[in-house]
Amino acid sequence: MRNFLIKCAFVLVVFALVAVPLFAQKGKGGGGSTGCATVAVPTVSASSALTGSSVGVFSRVTNCSSGKARYTVVVSAVSSCGEETVIASNLISFNGGESKLISVPYVVAPDTCKGGSSVFVNVYAGSTLLASQSTPLMIQ
User: Fold this and answer.
1) Which of 65, 72, 99, 135 has its CA 20 to 30 A from that of 91?
2) Distance from CA of residue 101 to its chain's centroid?
3) Which of the 8 DSSP states describes residue 79?
4) Higher pLDDT residue, 34 or 64?
């Protein structure tokens, strides 16, 4: 009977040692947690651009959760004729509550449709969109 109790206690201790790290991962943005992020409305270095020229795109991304997280930040542009161009895509690590400034150059392709376009900054946790903001950019 004593051996049985010792074996049961041993199994419970092993289970506890394995289970604690699994539960702790949920607070770090893993283990099924979707995360929390905000993004500031992006600004561009010029309100209009010629095809073939470049503009700077700037924004701020904030991890609004208390734990560490890794988010994919995608900067893209959609032209007046509906064509999307991915300007940059990066996996960025954040501490809890941390904000990071994003700055990327956008070289407008020579064959981009002229007219009103939009520049987007999207933040993803895996395939889940957490935050999105956009700003207009006139292509001449």
Assistant:
1) 135
2) 12
3) -
4) 64
β-sheet bridge partners, residue 2 = none
Can you say whether the dihedral through the CA atoms of 42, 101, 51, 108 is positive or negative?
A: negative
- Backbone angle region of 126, left / alpha / beta, with phi > 0 → left and psi within -120 to 50 → alpha: left
CA distances from 98 to 28, 45, 68, 70 (A): 14, 25, 9, 11
29: pLDDT confidence band, cut at 50, 70 and 90? very low
Model confidence band, residue 107 (pLDDT cutoffs 50, 70, 90)? very high
Q: How far apart are CA 95 and CA 76, in angstroms?
A: 25
Rounded CA-CA distance 46/80 in Å is 17
Q: Which stretches within the chain are classed as H helix?
A: 2-25
The structure tokens listed for 111 are 């064959």
How many residues are listed for the chain in this entry?
Answer: 140
Euclidean distance between the first and the last CA atom of the chain, given in angstroms as a whole number: 86
pLDDT at 26 over 60: no
Q: Is the pLDDT of residue 27 over 50?
A: no
Nearest 5 degrees, angle CA 16-CA 34-CA 90? Answer: 115
